[in-house]
């Protein structure tokens, strides 16, 4: 990938770590981006926990989820999720697959997530539920085969997210920032929905409210504020992605700050 | 704003960060203060997450929520909440609008928050519930128009707080410290009420207890203790607001400590 | 208080901060110790959040909760809780009053806490419930008058702890370490009991198990392990009490490490 | 133990701290490893909280839970759990006994943990429940006598884990990494199961899914990813075990970094 994509790969690593820092991703889960210069390719990390992903870990894949260049790195078993969704949904530029703790109880109970507060409208009115068992019988529940990925993409259809029985969720966005905010708001929505259920009654937004509030997370005042805030929190935790090697070579004084754990790292 | 208000703006930034640090505010929410020298104005940050607000971000507004001086900054879409409440409630000197996780389940389920422990009495006996849908039909749920702000202020009436259906809450105080403690105790109260509900029975304070315990948070031993504690926790997290520029210029040794994330910052 | 009690006051400040660090105490709550040389006195901090208490904050009180020496410091309104219990219970050497989040739902719902796991047996088989309303009608719920303190002590009777309706709990111990472990295990027990209730059935320990497991927290392997662990966690958070002034004067290099927030402080 | 086992003891201390850092272990709980060179012995720390265990704390025991060499250290009262399981289960190379908060509600309510998400399949289809009361009547609930340890091992039978009424759980693994991931996934599974129960319906994996997904945590992409992630999190928290003394002697510059709390320690 040419140097002009360095910034794109940094942004993807940033989004990956941001989603980990906000509790959407943990040891597992992954975020991808459609290649900005070639819609028939996408960018995704080698197999690595999302909190640890760096720009240098990010590889190019074709839409059938094969690496564009030969690599010796281990790859995610479930990268077909990304390829099949990019193939089926030309409007999608970013995909996140996760096992967020806030969402898993719904995946276990088979209860749909519905929008229950204004920012939660970003998940849409009717989130589909996909059960791998229905089409493939007993599996290890990984979405590793092309036909499994295609089945998931069919279930997603034109929706912003799909729940995966006994497994997690997959969320899509028109760009990386929409994807990040939608993934975070979906987890908050799930938490509030569970607790409202315990209080006795879950009243979702009306169809009209869902439609009108569904684009709140694209407002410049909202995007500007959340991106600054989530970046601040990532920096505060010492978890920003390291800068690219070329740059750090010209700033050797920074090298001590990028230790294994990154706790002292600061963005210049 | 003349220099004599520097301390006031610092206190407002401090309150904003304190409420973020204690879990009342997150990427969203805002705190305002009636102008101490002119009751027809109020002070509120430009559009920014409350954890990041500095004294320099705080602007003056008229009660119709227009900035007193022209500005190129982005402003909060919901600043009418503050203006309309200051106009309707001469006794109110400070306002906080938030989406606290502790309160949202009640906003979804439509269940009233009632005082369930002595410090929770600060929220009053009968908290009103406002549903934007009732008067305005389908909206994006933001309180952005003057008539929406006035409707919310009417629902608040003489109460210390109002719940907002599918959205959050707005809390008021006679001064900034009362506002902060009331907002924090209201979240604790909501958490205990939800869990008591799960145990089987929510027994609120009696009317007499609510009245007598309602002013506990104004006792000097209570205000002194909580303000020291919440400030300590903010300092411990490295999240105190930066000191004003004039002062930091005369203390250049401090400049390294006020990096982007503020983790090493200490109040002198 | 003579110098030989410096260590005792340091231990009390340590216990106070430990209980705050483990989530039993927050902005409120207080821990006291019967005076080791004079059973008709007790030691308790001036009015201050327990996380901030230092040895120098600790004052001597008579059992009627008056300070032994005149002081200009603000004092806790509820210090009669301690005096009345020391007067009524010669076996008690340490008292903790708290509003722990784990316990409050039980105080609201009026549901008794029962021992549900081996370490929870430290709270005893039958925890009494005290409602200030029963004897005093509507109050602000503070236990501030001697007759309120005596009423609470009568309700406590020979038990290890008493729940206080709409308010919190008071726990006692034969020494400071028993008090600390009992307070922490009681909160854990409450959390597990609430969640077991949600699973459908709370089965308490048998009377025999409660009696046999009730002294586990006095075993040398248990006391040694927990005290080391909770001290470690306090030190890791940078929250150990500062050393006495006399000592720090002879070790000036340490002074920088004991800043306002204490984050860098380490015990030598 | 000869020097060639230094790395083994370091790995065991690492696993112990990792399980504490991920919330499986707290002040209590312990992890052991069958001796890699002698299956009739096992390695276990002296009595100490698992977050604090260092390689130097780890002692060798015979399968009847007696130390191989005389020691003046305090030992865990419940070390028979480990010895009896190694004696009964030749396939087991690592054992963890814990009181994890996620699991305790099930131990109190007597509700079985069942696999509810793909990674949770690591706990197996049918987790046995052991109640010390059944065979031994009223006890202090510690598993301290050989006959109690043998009874627990019989209840475990060929399963990956056993729940202990009013006490906690014991988990086993074919190697240390399988044990760690199984223990962590079991806690996540318990949390999701409890919340799914609150949503109304717990649907476990099918028998076939449990069998197929049960070995996911042995996949190289999974083991590699989780071990890197949990180690990163431990390092980030400043909680890695100190390096062995011999090495630190040759690297004196590191000594300052291994203070009591370890916050500044970094692995070289």
Describe the protein in words.
Chain A has 268 residues and is an alpha+beta fold. Chain A has nine helices and seven strands, in the order H-E-E-E-H-E-H-E-H-H-E-E-H-H-H-H. Chain A has a seven-stranded mixed β-sheet, with helices on both faces. In chain A, strand 6 (161-164) and strand 7 form a beta hairpin. In chain A, helix 1 runs parallel beside helix 6 (176-199). Chains in contact: A-B, A-D, B-C, C-D. Chains A and B meet through helix 6, helix 7 and helix 8 of A and helix 3 and helix 6 of B.
Mean pLDDT of chain A: 91
The global form of chain A is globular
Number of helical stretches of at least 4 residues of chain A: 9
Could you name the ranges of chain A where pLDDT drops below 50 across 5 or more consecutive residues? 246-268
What's the N-to-C terminus distance of chain A?
Answer: 25 Å
Radius of gyration of chain A: 19 Å
Largest interface: A-B, 41 and 41 residues
Largest sheet of chain A: 7 strands, mixed
Oligomer: homotetramer
β-strand percent of chain A reads 5-15%
What string, H for helix and E for strand, traces the elements of chain A in order? HEEEHEHEHHEEHHHH
Overall helicity of chain A: 25-40%
Sheet with the most strands: spatial strand order of chain A: 3-2-1-4-7-6-5
- In total, the number of strands of chain A is 7
* Class derived from helix and strand content of chain A: alpha+beta
């Amino acid at each position: 990938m040419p140097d002009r994509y360095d910034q794109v790969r940094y942004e993807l690593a940033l989004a990956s770590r941001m989603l980990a820092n906000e509790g959407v991703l943990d040891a597992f889960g992954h975020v991808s981006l459609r290649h900005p210069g070639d819609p028939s390719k996408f960018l995704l990390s080698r197999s690595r926990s999302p909190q640890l992903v760096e720009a240098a870990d990010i590889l190019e894949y074709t839409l059938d989820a094969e690496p564009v260049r030969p690599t010796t790195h281990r790859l995610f078993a479930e990268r077909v999720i990304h390829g099949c969704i990019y193939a089926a949904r030309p409007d999608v530029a970013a995909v996140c697959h996760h096992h967020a703790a806030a969402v898993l109880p719904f995946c276990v109970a088979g209860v749909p997530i519905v929008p229950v507060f204004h920012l939660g409208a970003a998940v849409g009115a009717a989130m589909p539920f996909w059960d791998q068992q229905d089409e493939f019988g007993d599996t290890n529940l990984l979405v590793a085969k092309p036909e499994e990925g295609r089945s998931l993409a069919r279930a997603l259809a034109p929706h912003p997210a799909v729940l995966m029985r006994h497994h997690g969720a997959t969320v899509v966005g028109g760009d990386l920032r929409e994807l990040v905010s939608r993934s975070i708001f979906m987890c908050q929505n799930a938490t509030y929905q569970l607790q409202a259920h315990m209080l006795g009654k879950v009243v979702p937004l009306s169809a009209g409210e869902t439609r009108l509030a569904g684009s709140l997370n694209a407002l410049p005042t909202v995007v500007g504020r959340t991106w600054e805030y989530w970046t601040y929190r990532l920096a505060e935790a010492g978890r920003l992605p390291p800068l690219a090697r070329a740059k750090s070579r010209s700033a050797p004084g920074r090298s001590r700050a990028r230790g294994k754990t990154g706790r002292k790292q600061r963005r210049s």
